[in-house]
Amino acid sequence: MAQAFAQKGSLFWLLCFSFCLGFSTTIAEPALIAIANEAAKIAQNEGLLENSTTTVLQYALGLRITVALSVGLAILIGVLRIIHGWKLHHLIIFGYLVIIIITPFAPKHIVGIAYDTGGVTTSTITVPLVTALGIGLAKAIKGRNPMTDGFGLIAFASLTPIIFVMLYGMLL
Fold first, then answer.
1. Are 149 and 82 in contact (CB under 8 A)?
2. 151-170, pLDDT tens digit by residue?
3. Angle, vertex CA 163, rays to CA 33 and CA 121, nearest 5
4. Per-residue DSSP letters for 28-49?
5. CA-to-CA distance for 44 and 54, rounded, in angstroms?
6. Contact 163, 98 (CB under 8 A)
7. CB 32 within 8 A of CB 120
Protein backbone atom coordinates (compact mmCIF):
# COMPACT_ATOMS: atom_id res chain seq x y z
CA MET A 1 0.00 0.00 0.00
CA ALA A 2 2.87 2.36 0.74
CA GLN A 3 4.17 1.81 -2.78
CA ALA A 4 0.73 2.52 -4.26
CA PHE A 5 0.36 5.75 -2.28
CA ALA A 6 3.90 6.82 -3.19
CA GLN A 7 3.41 6.07 -6.88
CA LYS A 8 0.13 8.01 -6.96
CA GLY A 9 1.85 10.93 -5.28
CA SER A 10 -0.74 11.15 -2.50
CA LEU A 11 1.31 12.38 0.46
CA PHE A 12 -1.75 13.07 2.60
CA TRP A 13 -3.10 9.53 2.27
CA LEU A 14 0.36 8.03 2.68
CA LEU A 15 0.80 9.90 5.96
CA CYS A 16 -2.72 8.95 7.13
CA PHE A 17 -2.04 5.31 6.29
CA SER A 18 1.33 5.43 8.09
CA PHE A 19 -0.14 6.95 11.24
CA CYS A 20 -3.04 4.48 11.27
CA LEU A 21 -0.69 1.54 10.73
CA GLY A 22 1.50 2.61 13.65
CA PHE A 23 -1.46 3.34 15.91
CA SER A 24 -3.46 0.20 15.14
CA THR A 25 -0.58 -2.26 15.35
CA THR A 26 0.53 -0.79 18.66
CA ILE A 27 -2.89 -0.63 20.30
CA ALA A 28 -3.34 -4.32 19.46
CA GLU A 29 0.13 -5.35 20.65
CA PRO A 30 -0.30 -8.13 23.25
CA ALA A 31 2.82 -7.11 25.18
CA LEU A 32 1.55 -3.54 25.52
CA ILE A 33 -1.85 -4.74 26.71
CA ALA A 34 -0.17 -6.86 29.40
CA ILE A 35 2.16 -4.08 30.58
CA ALA A 36 -0.62 -1.47 30.66
CA ASN A 37 -2.89 -3.74 32.69
CA GLU A 38 -0.09 -4.64 35.11
CA ALA A 39 0.99 -1.01 35.50
CA ALA A 40 -2.60 0.00 36.29
CA LYS A 41 -2.93 -2.74 38.94
CA ILE A 42 0.35 -1.74 40.55
CA ALA A 43 -0.61 1.95 40.51
CA GLN A 44 -3.85 1.02 42.24
CA ASN A 45 -2.04 -1.12 44.86
CA GLU A 46 0.40 1.75 45.53
CA GLY A 47 -2.50 4.14 46.13
CA LEU A 48 -1.82 6.22 43.02
CA LEU A 49 -5.26 5.42 41.59
CA GLU A 50 -8.71 5.22 43.12
CA ASN A 51 -9.70 1.80 44.30
CA SER A 52 -12.19 1.14 41.49
CA THR A 53 -12.16 -1.17 38.51
CA THR A 54 -13.22 1.65 36.18
CA THR A 55 -10.27 3.83 37.16
CA VAL A 56 -7.81 0.96 36.65
CA LEU A 57 -9.27 0.16 33.23
CA GLN A 58 -9.22 3.84 32.21
CA TYR A 59 -5.58 4.17 33.30
CA ALA A 60 -4.57 1.07 31.32
CA LEU A 61 -6.47 2.23 28.25
CA GLY A 62 -5.01 5.73 28.55
CA LEU A 63 -1.53 4.26 28.71
CA ARG A 64 -2.18 2.10 25.63
CA ILE A 65 -3.63 5.02 23.66
CA THR A 66 -0.70 7.23 24.64
CA VAL A 67 1.80 4.66 23.40
CA ALA A 68 -0.20 4.01 20.22
CA LEU A 69 -0.43 7.73 19.43
CA SER A 70 3.30 8.10 19.93
CA VAL A 71 4.10 5.19 17.63
CA GLY A 72 1.66 6.49 15.01
CA LEU A 73 3.38 9.88 15.12
CA ALA A 74 6.81 8.23 15.00
CA ILE A 75 5.87 6.23 11.90
CA LEU A 76 4.45 9.36 10.27
CA ILE A 77 7.69 11.25 10.95
CA GLY A 78 9.68 8.22 9.79
CA VAL A 79 7.81 8.19 6.49
CA LEU A 80 8.59 11.89 6.06
CA ARG A 81 12.22 11.01 6.79
CA ILE A 82 12.23 8.43 4.00
CA ILE A 83 10.53 10.80 1.56
CA HIS A 84 12.80 13.76 2.29
CA GLY A 85 16.00 11.80 2.90
CA TRP A 86 16.53 13.03 6.45
CA LYS A 87 19.25 11.29 8.44
CA LEU A 88 17.91 8.74 10.91
CA HIS A 89 20.60 9.38 13.48
CA HIS A 90 19.59 13.06 13.74
CA LEU A 91 16.04 12.08 14.72
CA ILE A 92 17.23 9.45 17.17
CA ILE A 93 19.77 11.76 18.81
CA PHE A 94 17.11 14.47 19.15
CA GLY A 95 14.66 11.96 20.64
CA TYR A 96 17.12 10.70 23.22
CA LEU A 97 18.09 14.26 24.16
CA VAL A 98 14.41 14.94 24.85
CA ILE A 99 14.25 11.76 26.95
CA ILE A 100 17.32 12.79 28.94
CA ILE A 101 15.89 16.25 29.55
CA ILE A 102 12.40 15.21 30.68
CA THR A 103 13.31 12.11 32.73
CA PRO A 104 14.21 14.08 35.89
CA PHE A 105 10.87 15.93 35.72
CA ALA A 106 8.70 12.84 35.22
CA PRO A 107 7.08 11.20 38.24
CA LYS A 108 9.38 8.46 39.52
CA HIS A 109 6.64 5.81 39.32
CA ILE A 110 6.16 6.37 35.57
CA VAL A 111 9.79 6.41 34.37
CA GLY A 112 10.27 2.64 34.44
CA ILE A 113 6.94 2.07 32.72
CA ALA A 114 7.85 4.66 30.08
CA TYR A 115 11.17 3.01 29.28
CA ASP A 116 9.52 -0.43 29.11
CA THR A 117 6.81 0.76 26.72
CA GLY A 118 9.57 1.71 24.31
CA GLY A 119 10.56 -1.94 24.22
CA VAL A 120 7.12 -3.48 23.93
CA THR A 121 6.36 -1.49 20.80
CA THR A 122 8.87 -3.70 19.01
CA SER A 123 6.94 -6.93 19.27
CA THR A 124 5.04 -9.46 17.19
CA ILE A 125 2.50 -7.27 15.42
CA THR A 126 4.23 -3.94 14.92
CA VAL A 127 7.69 -4.93 13.67
CA PRO A 128 6.81 -6.91 10.52
CA LEU A 129 4.20 -4.42 9.31
CA VAL A 130 6.20 -1.27 10.01
CA THR A 131 9.37 -2.77 8.53
CA ALA A 132 7.45 -3.72 5.38
CA LEU A 133 6.13 -0.15 5.19
CA GLY A 134 9.62 1.35 5.38
CA ILE A 135 11.21 -1.02 2.89
CA GLY A 136 8.27 -0.81 0.46
CA LEU A 137 8.26 2.97 0.58
CA ALA A 138 12.03 3.20 0.10
CA LYS A 139 11.75 0.91 -2.94
CA ALA A 140 8.97 3.02 -4.43
CA ILE A 141 10.72 6.38 -4.14
CA LYS A 142 13.37 7.11 -6.72
CA GLY A 143 16.75 7.81 -5.17
CA ARG A 144 16.04 5.92 -1.93
CA ASN A 145 17.84 2.76 -0.93
CA PRO A 146 15.77 0.13 0.92
CA MET A 147 18.82 -0.87 2.98
CA THR A 148 19.75 2.60 4.20
CA ASP A 149 16.43 4.41 4.02
CA GLY A 150 13.92 1.57 4.50
CA PHE A 151 15.03 0.53 7.96
CA GLY A 152 15.00 2.59 11.14
CA LEU A 153 11.29 3.15 11.64
CA ILE A 154 11.24 0.71 14.54
CA ALA A 155 14.19 2.40 16.25
CA PHE A 156 12.42 5.73 16.10
CA ALA A 157 9.11 4.19 17.11
CA SER A 158 10.79 2.72 20.20
CA LEU A 159 11.84 6.05 21.66
CA THR A 160 8.68 8.12 21.15
CA PRO A 161 6.61 6.06 23.64
CA ILE A 162 9.20 6.84 26.32
CA ILE A 163 8.66 10.56 25.77
CA PHE A 164 4.87 10.35 25.52
CA VAL A 165 4.41 8.11 28.57
CA MET A 166 6.55 10.37 30.74
CA LEU A 167 4.48 13.35 29.54
CA TYR A 168 1.32 11.30 30.25
CA GLY A 169 2.60 10.75 33.80
CA MET A 170 3.34 14.45 34.23
CA LEU A 171 -0.13 15.42 33.07
CA LEU A 172 -1.89 12.94 35.33
1. yes
2. 888 888 999 999 999 999 99
3. 35
4. T-HHHHHHHHHHHHHHHHTTSS
5. 11
6. yes
7. yes
